[in-house]
Structure formats: structure tokens, C-alpha cells
Amino acid sequence: MTEESPLDTARAILFYITTTLLAIPLFVSMLIMHPFVLMLDKYKRWAQHFVNNVWANLTTSLFFRIQVIGRENLPPKGQPVVYVANHQSYLDIYTLFALWRPFKFISKTSNFLIPIVGWSMYLTGHIGLKRMDRRSQLDCLKTCGEMLQRGASVLFFPEGTRSDTGEMGDFRKGAFSVAKKAKVPVVPITLVGTGRLMPNGKEGVLRKGSVKMIVHPSIDPNKDADEMCKEAQEVIISSLHQ
Q: pLDDT of 195-241, one tens digit each?
């Protein structure tokens, strides 16, 4: 296990201060444009997603480098897909915004109450979930399906929670059942290194380094949901330790 230094803690504090300060003016711009977004683009909310992208990429560019491999495997712009990725760190969402593609992600409902950042998530139309509530889980999957039908892509972490060890857990089938029902491709993504920079449970630490994001070829929705789940898990884990 890598030892943390006071510099790692200072870097994490500076990261949170920076991302909050960047979020404030961008949140104001989201508030101003929100009535127009609801009138013109109620479901996809691409303008709000663009602000999300600017915020996350400005933040990460000051603290760590993101190398995107396989960008050619991304679907055409405007095509709804289900993105699935392994989950190691608080930094995973920040890293995924380096795709510069709009998507809805699922987050605990309590996160939407966080000032500025949580409110921005709400304005963008990200999807809330009460983790231990079965009814909320079913409603969440239904909402994801509706978003896909309306042309918005959705991001899932099929493990369901972050890994404490860096090793990938088993995938749950929900994301793939949604993709199958909506008849949209699944795009597997491997995140490498986010858990080393900021391990799960150690959000007060940010180590120096870089991360890789590997975009794999899409999986055809004509396959069975179990088959898609197995294929996605195998392809993501195959490049996890590059």
C-alpha cells in the first residue's frame, strides 16, 4: 500500500477548493439557461452537459492527466447508448467527462442536496437513486429506459459501488437489461489508475499521477442481457491492469 504524504492531503484540499470555485460561475450560467433548456431540450439537456464537461475537464487538467484510448469506438454523436465502466474512485465521474459526450449518470439522492455541485446535477437531469430501496431501484431503471428512448445516453457502474481493493467486482444485469429493452448498444469503458490517485474511502488524499480511459468496441443489443453483461465484464477486466 502506498503511503500518503502531507502533500497528497494538501493536493486533495486544493482539488476540492478548485472544483467548487469553478462550479460557482458555471452553475450560475446553468441557472440562466435552464428555462430555455426545458423548452428546447427537456430530456437530453446538451447545453447543461456541456457545462458539466467544461467544469470537470478544467478541474482535472490542473491535477492529473487523462489519456483516452479507443476514442474511435465512441458511437456517432447523438446516438443513445449505455456506457458501462468499472468503479474505483470518486474521480471516476470526473474522468468520464473527458469523453466529451453527454450522458446521464446515477447517483445517490442525497448527493443532489450538495450545494452547487448537487444542484448542477439536478439541472442536468442526472438520475437519483436510494440504494437500499427496491422501489427506487426499479424506478431508476425505468427512468434510464425512458431517457434512452428519448435519445439521451446513460452511464452505469454495473458493480453497484466503488471497489475498495482496486479489483473489479461482479457486474449486475440491470444496465444490460435496460440496453436490451431500449435496443441500444452497450459501450464498455475501462478506467485505469483513478483508484491509485484517490482510493475509495480516502477521499482526503490525491496522489500525483495520470489515468487511462479505454473505450472498447460497442456490444450489440441483439444479444441476450446475460451475454452482454458477461462480455462487458470480460473486456473491461482484460485491460484493467495495463
A: 999 998 899 999 999 999 999 999 999 999 999 999 999 999 998 87
Beta-bridged to residue 186, according to DSSP, are 82, 219
Q: Residue 170 — very low, low, confident or very high, per pLDDT cuts 50/70/90?
A: confident
Contact call for residues 80 and 148 (beta carbons, < 8 A): yes
**DSSP single-letter state for residue 231:** H
The pTM of the full predicted model, rounded to 2 decimals, is 0.92
Rounded Cα distance, 122 and 117, in Å: 9
Nearest CA among 134, 126, 89 for reference residue 105: 126
Angle of helix 174-182 relative to helix 134-149, nearest 10 degrees? 30
117 near 20, Cβ under 8 Å? yes
Integer Cα distance of 4 and 116 in angstroms: 29
Residue 99: all three cell numbers together: 469523453
Q: Give CA separation, 203 vs 15, 29, 110, 159, 199, in Å.
A: 11, 28, 17, 19, 7
pLDDT, one tens digit per residue, over 30-61 is 999 999 999 999 999 999 999 999 999 999 99
